[in-house]
């Protein structure tokens, strides 16, 4: 070998030099007859964030001579494994979605990569491993761990995020009161034309169902997400078990059942009588 090559070098992962060009001389063959092959083989990353690259050059000539040289590159990955904690996470906020990548970037800028992977270490079922979004709704109180790996071939890094989740971390918004108007007159005068439930579209009650039965217990109307508009009982039969669909129902007393999911994630039911007069 005619070029100079350090047998061992120690570098940080973000400063790994390119594989150098190595030259050989040969008393048997001309330079054009020398064949040089090279390989570069990295080891697995150790728990302390270091790994080794073995570089090998092999020269052979037409006289069947062969020479091999190697170089060992000891690589250190600074901050290979880090942890972070996300505290005070509410379990009953129906809109709460935690972007794990954004949380990591806020604390450790530049770590997140486009080909990174997420692992639900705690098997919570709350992590979308494709997007890195964590949805804590209705989780049991506790600590959940998500692992992120950036999968960088030269500077791999792992972040383990502990998410502390508890119901009593939640600040529950005050909900407006539902007011059920249990009498209506669908006679075409544009006044009191439908069964009105005030505040039913408030976020506290938006996930709801309404069922209405006649005096014989026959379901005459049902709908999900009642809203006093396109989903409102106007005295027209729309139940699955009615004898005649889309027909005007007679005056009389009916029975309603209103079910809704509360902002805390529980289910509640209200029921009572409803009076229809045309």
From TrEMBL:
It comes from the Bacteria. It holds the Pfam family CHU_C. This is Gliding motility-associated C-terminal domain-containing protein. InterPro entries: Ig-like_fold (IPR013783), T9SS_type_B (IPR026341). It comes from Flavobacterium aquatile LMG 4008 = ATCC 11947.
């Amino acid at each position: 070998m005619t070029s100079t090559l350090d047998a061992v070098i120690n570098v940080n992962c973000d400063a790994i030099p390119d594989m150098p060009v190595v030259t050989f001389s040969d008393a048997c063959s001309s330079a054009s007859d020398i064949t040089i092959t090279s390989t570069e083989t990295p080891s697995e990353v150790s728990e302390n964030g270091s790994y080794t690259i073995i570089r090998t050059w092999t020269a052979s000539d037409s006289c069947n001579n062969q020479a091999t040289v190697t170089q060992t590159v000891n690589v250190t990955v600074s901050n290979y494994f880090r942890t972070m904690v996300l505290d005070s996470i509410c379990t009953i906020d129906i809109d709460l979605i935690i972007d794990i990548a954004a949380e990591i970037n806020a604390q450790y800028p530049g770590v997140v990569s486009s080909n990174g992977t997420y692992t639900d270490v705690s098997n919570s079922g709350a992590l979308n491993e494709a997007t890195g979004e964590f949805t804590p709704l209705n989780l049991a109180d506790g600590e959940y761990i998500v692992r992120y790996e950036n999968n960088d071939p030269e500077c791999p890094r792992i972040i383990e995020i502990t998410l502390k989740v508890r119901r009593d971390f939640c600040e529950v918004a005050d909900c407006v009161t539902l007011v059920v108007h249990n009498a209506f007159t669908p006679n075409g005068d544009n006044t009191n034309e439908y069964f009105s439930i005030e505040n039913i579209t408030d976020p506290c009650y938006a996930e709801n169902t309404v069922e209405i039965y006649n005096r014989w217990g026959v379901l005459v109307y049902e709908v999900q997400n009642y809203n006093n508009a396109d989903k409102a009982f106007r005295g027209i039969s729309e139940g699955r078990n009615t004898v005649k669909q889309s027909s005007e129902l007679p005056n009389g007393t009916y029975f309603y059942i209103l079910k809704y999911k509360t902002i805390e994630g529980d289910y509640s039911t209200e029921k009572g009588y409803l009076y229809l007069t045309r």
